[in-house]
Protein backbone atom coordinates (compact mmCIF):
# COMPACT_ATOMS: atom_id res chain seq x y z
CA UNK A 1 0.00 0.00 0.00
CA UNK A 2 1.35 3.39 -0.86
CA UNK A 3 2.18 5.89 1.78
CA UNK A 4 0.05 8.88 0.95
CA UNK A 5 -1.20 9.15 4.51
CA UNK A 6 2.26 9.91 5.82
CA UNK A 7 2.08 13.36 7.41
CA UNK A 8 4.21 15.89 5.58
CA UNK A 9 5.65 18.70 7.68
CA UNK A 10 7.14 21.80 6.12
CA UNK A 11 10.02 22.98 8.31
CA UNK A 12 10.96 26.01 6.23
CA UNK A 13 10.26 28.31 9.15
CA UNK A 14 12.93 26.51 11.26
CA UNK A 15 15.67 28.25 9.35
CA UNK A 16 14.00 31.60 8.71
CA UNK A 17 13.77 33.20 12.17
CA UNK A 18 10.26 31.96 12.82
CA UNK A 19 7.75 33.82 14.93
CA UNK A 20 6.54 32.09 18.10
CA UNK A 21 3.28 31.35 16.34
CA UNK A 22 5.01 29.69 13.39
CA UNK A 23 7.13 27.61 15.75
CA UNK A 24 4.12 26.51 17.73
CA UNK A 25 2.24 25.56 14.62
CA UNK A 26 5.09 23.27 13.41
CA UNK A 27 5.45 21.94 16.95
CA UNK A 28 1.77 21.01 17.04
CA UNK A 29 1.96 19.20 13.70
CA UNK A 30 5.02 17.21 14.79
CA UNK A 31 3.37 16.21 18.05
CA UNK A 32 0.20 15.17 16.26
CA UNK A 33 2.12 13.11 13.68
CA UNK A 34 4.16 11.34 16.37
CA UNK A 35 1.10 10.68 18.52
CA UNK A 36 -0.91 9.31 15.66
CA UNK A 37 1.65 7.49 13.52
CA UNK A 38 5.11 7.72 15.08
CA UNK A 39 6.60 9.04 11.86
CA UNK A 40 6.38 11.90 9.38
CA UNK A 41 8.14 13.30 6.33
CA UNK A 42 9.91 16.64 6.43
CA UNK A 43 10.20 18.93 3.47
CA UNK A 44 11.97 22.27 3.03
CA UNK A 45 14.70 21.43 5.51
CA UNK A 46 18.02 23.18 5.12
CA UNK A 47 20.26 20.17 4.46
CA UNK A 48 21.70 21.15 1.06
CA UNK A 49 20.86 18.86 -1.86
CA UNK A 50 24.51 18.89 -2.87
CA UNK A 51 25.47 17.56 0.51
CA UNK A 52 22.94 14.75 0.18
CA UNK A 53 24.32 13.94 -3.28
CA UNK A 54 27.84 13.96 -1.89
CA UNK A 55 27.14 11.64 1.00
CA UNK A 56 25.39 9.13 -1.25
CA UNK A 57 28.34 9.18 -3.69
CA UNK A 58 30.85 8.77 -0.86
CA UNK A 59 28.81 5.97 0.72
CA UNK A 60 28.69 4.00 -2.53
CA UNK A 61 32.43 4.48 -2.96
CA UNK A 62 32.98 2.94 0.45
CA UNK A 63 30.58 0.01 0.04
CA UNK A 64 31.96 -0.83 -3.39
CA UNK A 65 35.43 -1.40 -1.90
CA UNK A 66 36.52 -5.02 -1.52
CA UNK A 67 35.33 -6.86 1.53
CA UNK A 68 38.91 -7.02 2.88
CA UNK A 69 39.27 -3.25 2.63
CA UNK A 70 35.96 -2.63 4.37
CA UNK A 71 36.74 -5.04 7.18
CA UNK A 72 39.73 -2.90 8.09
CA UNK A 73 37.18 -0.37 9.37
CA UNK A 74 35.05 -2.94 11.17
CA UNK A 75 34.40 -3.16 14.88
CA UNK A 76 36.46 -5.69 16.85
CA UNK A 77 34.05 -8.56 16.34
CA UNK A 78 35.09 -8.69 12.69
CA UNK A 79 38.45 -7.03 12.95
CA UNK A 80 40.49 -8.06 16.01
CA UNK A 81 42.84 -5.13 15.44
CA UNK A 82 40.10 -2.55 15.87
CA UNK A 83 40.00 -0.42 18.99
CA UNK A 84 36.21 -0.10 18.65
CA UNK A 85 33.71 -2.47 20.14
CA UNK A 86 30.67 -1.00 18.38
CA UNK A 87 31.39 1.78 15.94
CA UNK A 88 32.56 0.96 12.45
CA UNK A 89 31.71 -1.34 9.58
CA UNK A 90 29.65 -4.54 9.84
CA UNK A 91 29.27 -7.13 7.06
CA UNK A 92 26.04 -8.32 5.44
CA UNK A 93 26.20 -11.99 6.33
CA UNK A 94 25.27 -11.18 9.92
CA UNK A 95 21.89 -9.62 9.45
CA UNK A 96 21.17 -9.06 5.78
CA UNK A 97 22.62 -5.61 5.20
CA UNK A 98 26.04 -4.10 5.62
CA UNK A 99 26.66 -0.79 7.22
CA UNK A 100 28.92 1.59 8.96
CA UNK A 101 28.15 3.23 12.29
CA UNK A 102 29.73 6.62 12.73
CA UNK A 103 30.13 8.39 16.07
CA UNK A 104 30.04 12.07 16.72
CA UNK A 105 33.02 13.28 14.67
CA UNK A 106 33.59 16.05 17.22
CA UNK A 107 34.01 13.70 20.18
CA UNK A 108 36.76 14.78 22.51
CA UNK A 109 39.87 12.63 22.30
CA UNK A 110 40.78 13.41 25.85
CA UNK A 111 37.49 12.91 27.65
CA UNK A 112 37.80 10.16 30.24
CA UNK A 113 34.85 8.16 28.89
CA UNK A 114 36.57 8.12 25.50
CA UNK A 115 39.91 7.24 27.06
CA UNK A 116 38.28 4.45 29.03
CA UNK A 117 36.58 3.16 25.90
CA UNK A 118 33.15 3.18 27.53
CA UNK A 119 30.85 1.64 24.89
CA UNK A 120 29.93 4.00 22.04
CA UNK A 121 32.44 6.65 23.17
CA UNK A 122 34.55 5.37 20.35
CA UNK A 123 36.44 7.39 17.82
CA UNK A 124 35.74 6.89 14.14
CA UNK A 125 38.34 4.97 12.17
CA UNK A 126 38.29 7.05 9.00
CA UNK A 127 39.28 5.47 5.70
CA UNK A 128 42.68 6.80 4.71
CA UNK A 129 42.97 9.60 2.17
CA UNK A 130 44.87 7.18 0.00
CA UNK A 131 41.88 4.87 -0.09
CA UNK A 132 38.95 7.24 -0.50
CA UNK A 133 40.43 10.71 -0.77
CA UNK A 134 40.16 13.73 1.52
CA UNK A 135 36.53 14.40 0.80
CA UNK A 136 35.17 11.32 2.54
CA UNK A 137 35.68 12.51 6.10
CA UNK A 138 34.73 16.09 5.20
CA UNK A 139 31.43 15.04 3.63
CA UNK A 140 30.50 12.72 6.48
CA UNK A 141 31.26 15.45 9.02
CA UNK A 142 29.26 18.07 7.10
CA UNK A 143 26.31 15.72 6.82
CA UNK A 144 26.53 14.88 10.52
CA UNK A 145 26.46 18.59 11.37
CA UNK A 146 23.50 19.31 9.09
CA UNK A 147 21.33 16.41 10.33
CA UNK A 148 22.32 17.16 13.93
CA UNK A 149 21.02 20.72 13.56
CA UNK A 150 17.83 19.46 11.98
CA UNK A 151 17.32 16.89 14.74
CA UNK A 152 17.87 19.54 17.41
CA UNK A 153 15.27 21.83 15.83
CA UNK A 154 12.78 18.96 15.82
CA UNK A 155 13.51 18.44 19.52
CA UNK A 156 12.95 22.15 20.15
CA UNK A 157 9.57 21.83 18.49
CA UNK A 158 8.75 18.77 20.60
CA UNK A 159 9.72 20.66 23.78
CA UNK A 160 7.38 23.51 22.76
CA UNK A 161 4.62 21.06 21.97
CA UNK A 162 4.85 19.81 25.54
CA UNK A 163 4.72 23.31 26.98
CA UNK A 164 8.43 23.40 27.87
CA UNK A 165 11.23 25.81 27.13
CA UNK A 166 12.44 25.15 23.59
CA UNK A 167 15.95 24.39 24.86
CA UNK A 168 14.71 21.85 27.38
CA UNK A 169 16.42 18.89 25.69
CA UNK A 170 19.68 20.58 24.70
CA UNK A 171 21.84 19.49 27.61
CA UNK A 172 20.20 16.11 27.92
CA UNK A 173 21.19 15.33 24.35
CA UNK A 174 24.63 16.90 24.44
CA UNK A 175 26.39 17.45 27.77
CA UNK A 176 29.67 18.80 26.40
CA UNK A 177 28.88 22.25 27.80
CA UNK A 178 28.75 20.63 31.23
CA UNK A 179 32.06 18.85 30.69
CA UNK A 180 30.50 15.58 29.52
CA UNK A 181 31.66 13.39 26.65
CA UNK A 182 28.74 14.50 24.51
CA UNK A 183 25.98 12.86 22.59
CA UNK A 184 25.88 9.18 21.76
CA UNK A 185 24.01 9.92 18.55
CA UNK A 186 25.18 7.98 15.51
CA UNK A 187 25.09 8.34 11.78
CA UNK A 188 24.69 5.08 9.95
CA UNK A 189 25.30 4.24 6.32
CA UNK A 190 23.17 1.23 5.39
CA UNK A 191 23.97 -0.65 2.23
CA UNK A 192 21.76 -3.44 0.95
CA UNK A 193 23.76 -5.47 -1.56
CA UNK A 194 22.09 -7.91 -3.90
CA UNK A 195 21.20 -10.98 -1.89
CA UNK A 196 23.51 -13.95 -1.95
CA UNK A 197 23.59 -17.21 -0.04
CA UNK A 198 25.94 -15.91 2.61
CA UNK A 199 23.16 -13.68 3.88
CA UNK A 200 20.44 -14.82 6.24
CA UNK A 201 16.91 -15.20 5.02
CA UNK A 202 14.76 -12.69 6.88
CA UNK A 203 11.01 -12.83 6.89
CA UNK A 204 8.23 -10.69 8.27
CA UNK A 205 5.22 -11.85 10.26
CA UNK A 206 3.21 -11.80 7.04
CA UNK A 207 5.68 -13.93 5.10
CA UNK A 208 7.23 -10.94 3.30
CA UNK A 209 10.95 -11.42 2.51
CA UNK A 210 13.01 -8.70 4.11
CA UNK A 211 16.43 -7.14 3.84
CA UNK A 212 16.11 -5.33 7.17
CA UNK A 213 14.29 -7.12 9.94
CA UNK A 214 11.23 -5.71 11.67
CA UNK A 215 12.37 -3.45 14.49
CA UNK A 216 11.77 -0.30 16.44
CA UNK A 217 14.58 2.24 16.84
CA UNK A 218 15.70 2.56 20.46
CA UNK A 219 17.11 6.07 20.28
CA UNK A 220 15.26 9.38 20.68
CA UNK A 221 14.46 9.91 17.03
CA UNK A 222 15.73 8.93 13.61
CA UNK A 223 16.08 11.10 10.51
CA UNK A 224 16.22 8.75 7.57
CA UNK A 225 17.25 9.40 3.99
CA UNK A 226 16.29 6.73 1.44
CA UNK A 227 18.32 7.06 -1.70
CA UNK A 228 16.34 6.47 -4.91
CA UNK A 229 15.25 2.92 -4.11
CA UNK A 230 12.34 2.49 -1.70
CA UNK A 231 11.54 -0.59 0.34
CA UNK A 232 10.97 0.98 3.74
CA UNK A 233 7.69 -0.03 5.34
CA UNK A 234 6.13 1.11 8.59
CA UNK A 235 3.55 -0.74 10.61
CA UNK A 236 0.30 0.95 11.41
CA UNK A 237 -2.08 -0.07 14.18
CA UNK A 238 -5.70 -1.01 14.04
CA UNK A 239 -5.89 -2.74 11.79
CA UNK A 240 -2.24 -3.75 11.84
CA UNK A 241 -0.86 -3.27 8.36
CA UNK A 242 2.38 -2.49 6.56
CA UNK A 243 2.64 0.64 4.49
CA UNK A 244 5.30 1.56 1.94
CA UNK A 245 7.21 4.73 2.56
CA UNK A 246 7.94 5.91 -0.94
CA UNK A 247 11.08 7.72 -1.94
CA UNK A 248 10.53 11.45 -2.31
CA UNK A 249 13.85 12.91 -3.44
CA UNK A 250 15.68 15.10 -0.92
CA UNK A 251 13.10 14.65 1.83
CA UNK A 252 13.64 12.87 5.14
CA UNK A 253 11.44 10.47 7.03
CA UNK A 254 11.54 11.01 10.79
CA UNK A 255 10.45 8.39 13.27
CA UNK A 256 10.06 8.40 17.01
CA UNK A 257 12.42 6.09 18.93
CA UNK A 258 11.75 4.18 22.12
CA UNK A 259 13.51 6.81 24.27
CA UNK A 260 11.23 9.57 23.03
CA UNK A 261 8.29 7.29 23.69
CA UNK A 262 9.53 6.93 27.28
CA UNK A 263 10.29 10.66 27.60
CA UNK A 264 6.70 11.43 26.65
CA UNK A 265 5.21 8.68 28.82
CA UNK A 266 4.01 6.77 25.77
CA UNK A 267 2.27 9.70 24.09
CA UNK A 268 4.66 9.77 21.12
CA UNK A 269 4.76 6.30 19.63
CA UNK A 270 7.83 4.37 18.54
CA UNK A 271 6.82 2.25 15.58
CA UNK A 272 7.90 -0.95 13.94
CA UNK A 273 9.50 -0.64 10.54
CA UNK A 274 11.37 -2.90 8.11
CA UNK A 275 12.78 -3.02 4.58
CA UNK A 276 11.48 -5.46 1.98
CA UNK A 277 13.86 -7.65 0.00
CA UNK A 278 14.73 -6.01 -3.31
CA UNK A 279 16.41 -7.09 -6.48
CA UNK A 280 18.60 -4.00 -6.66
CA UNK A 281 21.23 -2.38 -4.47
CA UNK A 282 19.93 0.12 -1.98
CA UNK A 283 21.39 2.80 0.24
CA UNK A 284 19.78 4.44 3.24
CA UNK A 285 21.25 6.87 5.72
CA UNK A 286 19.66 7.13 9.16
CA UNK A 287 20.86 9.71 11.67
CA UNK A 288 20.04 8.39 15.12
CA UNK A 289 19.61 11.17 17.65
CA UNK A 290 20.57 9.81 21.05
CA UNK A 291 21.30 11.33 24.45
CA UNK A 292 24.43 11.08 26.64
CA UNK A 293 25.64 8.12 28.64
CA UNK A 294 24.18 9.28 31.96
CA UNK A 295 21.13 11.18 30.66
CA UNK A 296 18.09 10.16 32.69
CA UNK A 297 15.23 9.12 30.43
CA UNK A 298 12.33 10.15 32.60
CA UNK A 299 8.84 11.18 31.51
CA UNK A 300 8.37 14.92 30.96
CA UNK A 301 6.21 16.35 33.76
CA UNK A 302 3.78 17.65 31.16
CA UNK A 303 3.29 14.18 29.68
CA UNK A 304 1.91 12.77 32.91
CA UNK A 305 -1.71 13.25 33.88
CA UNK A 306 -4.54 11.41 35.60
CA UNK A 307 -5.51 9.92 32.23
CA UNK A 308 -1.90 9.08 31.46
CA UNK A 309 -0.22 7.95 34.71
CA UNK A 310 3.53 7.10 34.65
CA UNK A 311 4.17 4.06 32.48
CA UNK A 312 7.93 3.51 32.57
CA UNK A 313 10.71 3.13 35.11
CA UNK A 314 13.31 5.91 34.83
CA UNK A 315 16.42 4.65 33.04
CA UNK A 316 19.85 5.96 32.06
CA UNK A 317 20.39 6.36 28.34
CA UNK A 318 23.81 4.61 27.89
CA UNK A 319 23.07 1.39 29.80
CA UNK A 320 19.55 1.23 28.32
CA UNK A 321 20.80 1.48 24.73
CA UNK A 322 23.55 -1.00 25.42
CA UNK A 323 21.01 -3.58 26.48
CA UNK A 324 18.36 -2.72 23.93
CA UNK A 325 20.60 -3.04 20.88
CA UNK A 326 21.38 -6.65 21.70
CA UNK A 327 18.18 -7.40 19.81
CA UNK A 328 20.12 -6.67 16.62
CA UNK A 329 22.46 -9.43 15.54
CA UNK A 330 25.01 -6.98 14.21
CA UNK A 331 25.34 -5.52 17.70
CA UNK A 332 25.61 -8.63 19.79
CA UNK A 333 28.94 -8.80 21.52
CA UNK A 334 28.71 -11.12 24.50
CA UNK A 335 30.95 -14.14 24.60
CA UNK A 336 28.49 -16.76 23.58
CA UNK A 337 27.74 -14.78 20.45
CA UNK A 338 31.27 -14.06 19.38
CA UNK A 339 31.75 -16.77 16.84
CA UNK A 340 28.21 -17.55 16.06
CA UNK A 341 27.55 -18.89 12.64
CA UNK A 342 24.18 -17.63 11.66
CA UNK A 343 21.86 -19.76 9.70
CA UNK A 344 18.60 -18.46 8.47
CA UNK A 345 16.73 -16.07 10.68
CA UNK A 346 13.50 -17.45 9.45
CA UNK A 347 13.03 -20.71 7.76
CA UNK A 348 11.37 -20.45 4.38
CA UNK A 349 10.11 -24.01 4.17
CA UNK A 350 11.54 -27.40 4.86
CA UNK A 351 15.03 -26.12 4.89
CA UNK A 352 17.80 -24.65 6.88
CA UNK A 353 20.29 -22.50 5.10
CA UNK A 354 23.77 -23.32 6.23
CA UNK A 355 25.89 -20.26 5.87
CA UNK A 356 29.14 -21.82 6.77
CA UNK A 357 29.85 -25.35 7.63
CA UNK A 358 29.40 -26.09 11.27
CA UNK A 359 30.53 -29.49 12.48
CA UNK A 360 28.26 -31.52 14.66
CA UNK A 361 30.93 -32.17 17.24
CA UNK A 362 32.12 -28.60 17.45
CA UNK A 363 28.95 -26.63 17.34
CA UNK A 364 25.77 -26.47 19.24
CA UNK A 365 22.50 -25.50 17.71
CA UNK A 366 20.69 -22.51 19.10
CA UNK A 367 17.03 -21.76 18.53
CA UNK A 368 15.79 -18.37 19.61
CA UNK A 369 12.24 -17.22 19.86
CA UNK A 370 10.29 -14.42 21.37
CA UNK A 371 8.43 -14.90 24.61
CA UNK A 372 5.52 -12.68 23.72
CA UNK A 373 3.21 -15.59 23.67
CA UNK A 374 4.82 -18.00 26.02
CA UNK A 375 1.82 -20.28 26.28
CA UNK A 376 2.26 -21.31 22.69
CA UNK A 377 5.83 -22.31 23.06
CA UNK A 378 6.83 -25.84 23.84
CA UNK A 379 9.72 -27.93 22.73
CA UNK A 380 10.47 -31.56 22.74
CA UNK A 381 13.65 -33.34 21.84
CA UNK A 382 14.38 -36.73 20.64
CA UNK A 383 17.48 -38.38 22.07
CA UNK A 384 18.00 -39.80 18.62
CA UNK A 385 19.63 -36.76 17.19
CA UNK A 386 19.78 -33.94 19.66
CA UNK A 387 19.92 -33.39 23.33
CA UNK A 388 18.88 -30.24 24.97
CA UNK A 389 21.69 -28.54 26.83
CA UNK A 390 20.05 -25.57 28.35
CA UNK A 391 17.65 -22.71 28.02
CA UNK A 392 18.65 -19.10 28.52
CA UNK A 393 16.41 -16.15 29.08
CA UNK A 394 17.14 -12.79 27.65
CA UNK A 395 15.10 -9.69 28.29
CA UNK A 396 12.53 -10.28 25.61
CA UNK A 397 13.47 -13.55 24.14
CA UNK A 398 14.60 -16.99 25.03
CA UNK A 399 17.03 -19.39 23.49
CA UNK A 400 17.62 -23.08 23.72
CA UNK A 401 20.86 -24.87 23.06
CA UNK A 402 21.07 -28.34 21.64
CA UNK A 403 23.95 -30.57 20.80
CA UNK A 404 24.13 -33.63 18.69
CA UNK A 405 23.70 -36.65 20.87
CA UNK A 406 26.31 -38.70 19.05
CA UNK A 407 29.34 -37.51 20.96
CA UNK A 408 31.48 -40.30 19.53
CA UNK A 409 30.51 -39.39 16.02
CA UNK A 410 33.54 -38.38 13.97
CA UNK A 411 33.85 -34.71 13.13
CA UNK A 412 31.62 -34.21 10.23
CA UNK A 413 30.69 -30.95 8.68
CA UNK A 414 27.34 -29.94 7.48
CA UNK A 415 28.96 -29.26 4.16
CA UNK A 416 27.20 -32.40 3.04
CA UNK A 417 24.03 -30.45 3.26
CA UNK A 418 25.05 -28.09 0.43
CA UNK A 419 23.75 -24.59 0.66
CA UNK A 420 20.04 -25.12 0.72
CA UNK A 421 18.82 -28.45 1.80
CA UNK A 422 15.46 -29.85 2.00
CA UNK A 423 16.10 -31.76 5.16
CA UNK A 424 14.27 -34.77 3.96
CA UNK A 425 17.24 -35.30 1.63
CA UNK A 426 19.66 -35.67 4.44
CA UNK A 427 21.00 -39.13 4.76
CA UNK A 428 19.40 -40.80 7.75
CA UNK A 429 22.36 -42.98 8.55
CA UNK A 430 24.86 -40.18 8.69
CA UNK A 431 22.68 -38.43 11.21
CA UNK A 432 23.84 -35.04 10.18
CA UNK A 433 20.33 -33.80 10.24
CA UNK A 434 19.88 -31.54 13.16
CA UNK A 435 16.31 -30.65 12.86
CA UNK A 436 13.72 -31.49 10.35
CA UNK A 437 11.44 -28.57 9.95
CA UNK A 438 8.07 -28.08 8.57
CA UNK A 439 7.40 -24.46 8.71
CA UNK A 440 3.99 -22.96 8.51
CA UNK A 441 3.69 -19.25 8.41
CA UNK A 442 0.48 -18.46 10.20
CA UNK A 443 -0.30 -14.89 11.13
CA UNK A 444 1.48 -14.23 14.40
CA UNK A 445 2.40 -17.79 14.90
CA UNK A 446 5.04 -19.98 13.46
CA UNK A 447 5.14 -23.70 13.88
CA UNK A 448 8.10 -25.94 13.33
CA UNK A 449 7.41 -29.60 13.47
CA UNK A 450 9.98 -32.29 13.41
CA UNK A 451 10.67 -35.71 14.72
CA UNK A 452 13.20 -34.07 17.00
CA UNK A 453 11.82 -30.76 18.00
CA UNK A 454 8.48 -29.13 18.12
CA UNK A 455 8.44 -25.41 18.42
CA UNK A 456 5.49 -23.19 18.49
CA UNK A 457 6.33 -19.68 19.20
CA UNK A 458 5.10 -16.23 18.53
CA UNK A 459 8.09 -15.24 16.47
CA UNK A 460 11.07 -17.31 15.59
CA UNK A 461 14.08 -15.08 15.95
CA UNK A 462 16.81 -17.26 14.61
CA UNK A 463 18.58 -20.50 14.22
CA UNK A 464 22.30 -20.44 14.58
CA UNK A 465 25.31 -22.53 15.52
CA UNK A 466 27.66 -21.66 18.30
CA UNK A 467 31.12 -23.03 18.86
CA UNK A 468 30.47 -25.53 21.58
CA UNK A 469 33.66 -25.55 23.68
CA UNK A 470 32.12 -23.76 26.61
CA UNK A 471 28.93 -25.75 26.55
CA UNK A 472 30.45 -29.10 25.76
CA UNK A 473 32.80 -28.95 28.71
CA UNK A 474 29.76 -28.89 30.92
CA UNK A 475 28.11 -31.73 29.02
CA UNK A 476 30.79 -34.15 27.90
O1 LIG B 1 17.04 1.26 5.34
C1 LIG B 1 16.03 1.78 5.79
O2 LIG B 1 15.24 2.41 5.08
C2 LIG B 1 15.70 1.66 7.25
C3 LIG B 1 16.88 1.33 8.10
C4 LIG B 1 16.56 1.33 9.54
O3 LIG B 1 15.43 1.29 9.93
C5 LIG B 1 17.65 1.34 10.55
O4 LIG B 1 18.85 1.27 10.18
O5 LIG B 1 17.31 1.45 11.74
FE1 LIG C 1 15.29 1.64 12.04
UniProtKB/TrEMBL annotation:
It comes from the Eukaryota. PROSITE patterns: FE2OG_OXY (PS51471). GO terms for molecular function: metal ion binding; oxidoreductase activity. Coiled coil: none annotated. Residues 182-291 form the Fe2OG dioxygenase domain. Keywords: Iron, Metal-binding, Oxidoreductase. InterPro entries: DIOX_N, IPNS-like_FE2OG_OXY, IPNS-like_sf, Iron_ascorbate_oxido_reductase, Oxoglu/Fe-dep_dioxygenase_dom. Pfam families: 2OG-FeII_Oxy, DIOX_N. Belongs to the iron/ascorbate-dependent oxidoreductase family. This is Fe2OG dioxygenase domain-containing protein.
